[in-house]
Design goal:
The complex is a heterodimer of chains A (171) and B (625). Chain A is 43% helix and 18% strand. Chain A has 171 residues and is of the alpha/beta class. Chain A is globular, with a radius of gyration of 16 Å. The model of chain A has no long low-confidence stretch (mean pLDDT 92). Chain B is globular. In chain B, the strands form seven sheets. In chain B, strands 3-4-5 form a three-stranded antiparallel β-sheet, sandwiched between helices. Chain B has a three-stranded antiparallel β-sheet with strand order 8-9-10. In chain B, 36% of the residues lie in helices and 16% in strands. With 625 residues, chain B is α+β, with helices and mostly antiparallel strands. In chain B, strand 14 and strand 15 (453-458) form a beta hairpin. Residues 598-625 of chain B have low confidence and may be disordered. The chains are: A alpha/beta (171), B alpha+beta (625).
Chain lengths: 171, 625
Amino acid sequence: MRVLVGGVGYHNLSDHSVGPLLVERCQRMPWPRGVDIRDLSFNHLGFVQEFLGDRLYYDRVVLVGAVPRGGPPGQVRFYRWAFRLPPEAELQNRIAEAYMGVISLENLLVIGTHFDIWPLDVRVFEVEPAWETWGGRLSPQVEETLPRLLTAVREEVLAGWAEGWARARAN
Amino acid sequence: MCFKNLPIEFDQQGRPYLRPEVPNPYRYEVRSLAEQEERIRELLARNGYIRNVDFDPVTRVAGALAFHTVVDLKERKVLAANSMATLFRGYEVILKGRDPRDAAFISSRACGVCGGVHATTSCLALEMAFGIKPPPLGIVIRNMLLAIEYLYDHPLHLFLLAGPDYSQALVEKTNPSVWERAKRAEAPQAAVHGFRTIGEIMVGLNPLSGSLYLEALQMTRVAREAYVLIGAKYPHPETVIPGGVTTTVSISTFNEIYRRLVDLIDYSKKVVTLWDDLCDFFYAVNPLYRQVGARPKNLADPGQWDDPEAYDATYEGCATWGERRWATPGIIINGEQVTTNLQLINVGLEEFVEHSYYENWETYPFRTDPLGAPLSPYHPWNKETKPRPGPQSWRDRYSWAASPRWDRQVVEAECTARIWNTAVANKLPHRRFLEPTGTSLKMSLPAGKLPAMEIEWKVPAEWNAFERNRGRAYCLAYSALIALDNWLYGMDLLKRGRTKVHTRFEIPRSGRQIGVGFWGAGRGWLTHHAVIENGALVNYQIITPSTINASPRDPWGNPGPYEEAVLNTPILEEFERTETFMGIDILRTIRSFDPCMPCTTHIMVEGQDRVLVTEVNTCACGLDE
């Protein structure tokens, strides 16, 4: 059973760094074998190429990042990725953006879907940011959310891991 | 001599001095744009076939660019054009007061594609300010990094950003008659690139699915792999610092790079022949395509890729070491090269903000350069960045880009300016693979999986959108050869035991130092001007190629390069109703410059230390709280 936990976001940009920050904290914790914790805050096409070139495989992917949607600061939204692609012209723009340095959880989801790298089970945690300021400090709202987020991510990973093993044993 | 507009003359030894007895030598009158705008407003009101056509944002460009045009759809011409950099970059403000050693790492973030060029330019500025000469192998590695960066950058532009404008998907829609001809037109260089007809090339250029689009994606990976072997990280290298680089290289590192370079050199053979065939086809179909994106042949480039032995980082020596670069510095005005002297290139530079969201500045700390040549109060060493957000007005201020000018003339930044200046100057000291002729640049591409090949870039008869793309394709081959030449140079240094890659230095804690980094980015010209006082940066000015090209009108009312090129563009698109007009000729023109607006899309919120990163585009379908 292989699970990938990926944090996505800009470093040193307060709440927008919540993805990479969560990865840092996850990396300090013990995880079962087969769980990879990675900072995916780099060229999304580069990740796709690595994924395809190195024939990476995961049963479940859990992605975390800050996405401003106008909700209350610190709000955590959780959903399973529905693999819906935007229109072709929009998709081109997302790819161009990725090549030009835009780091975005949404772009990673969309580009990964277009190049068919994702397993069927992709789970997403979005955090509503409050601050958009230079630096490593989080807003009090997002700081307060972080332990809860960490627990939720861990539960999703361990549940996926356990389900995978159960399936493997049944087969 | 080279200046026609600036009040600068030369003594018998060729040293520049300020023309005597001119009371206010750099003064100028600002020409009002009100009358012109009023005329356009009247035309718009009177004629239904004259339309505002706005591109906001211009897609498939890096960063935030909007473009406003007024198009006469009956006469098929553009009546007005305004280029708008819609975001404030602000690195000049961010860097003020910092330790100079931060500059390379922070300024690198000015771009998400080509951070390495900023890091390097920053290091060059500091090397000049502090008198640091890097060892030859450090210079060679830096040269390789920068050449390899373009092997990522140019394919990205040619196939992901500009390429789709020439794809079947677009041409069939915007110019069906051209597509019909393309399907039947044989591609003259099919033996090299493998596409039998122009139509097949256009299919290959189809975004997301075309073989050329997908191959470019793959080749950017090859370039990135080569880059990180010595840069550690892409696009923001960790190893580039003032005084050289921090990476340790060995023969095996070089071998790893070589394997990838061979693939990239082969790839460049294909790319050059493809774009040659494509450009020539469009000219043959309709000679008016030669007018798309046309501008006077006014180009500026500070050169790049330093000679490992000649470069000493001094301003005093810049005219000499500049001319020993792999890309000869130079200014071309109306097709004639007027100088290759880096000092004069620097002295002729000014930035104006009359139509930008900045205030003018009052200070004038540097009346001369370190050699005593006169400097304008509008020179980057004298410039202060004073943001002044305000409403958009075509007659007043409408862009976050300033208007850099050379000798008060509108010049263009282009990667093609590198090969152009190198070709016509004919001063290149490094001729293992490159041979300038005065009117062209011959390149010898060695055999890889494809056989060896000789190519020749010729100074174009017209300067337009197609030649910009063609030039960029040749620059891919040119950059690959410079990487290979430096690779050979580096191997030789390693064999001779000259393995030092860095020179130690100390930051002086007192006094004032100034420096300038003369370099280039994927799109051409890049300079960083730094002023350091008591160990901290007090002024830092970056002029990027897209600042030059996207510039709004200058005080004399002259349009910036994008604007001028769009104004000269005929509308060749085939459309039956005005509602279906897409503006493909305008978009081809803008994209041919490879616009790279400041990336990582940050904006300043007045009075606060806030930045915003990107906008949300999708819905979170299936969202659970």
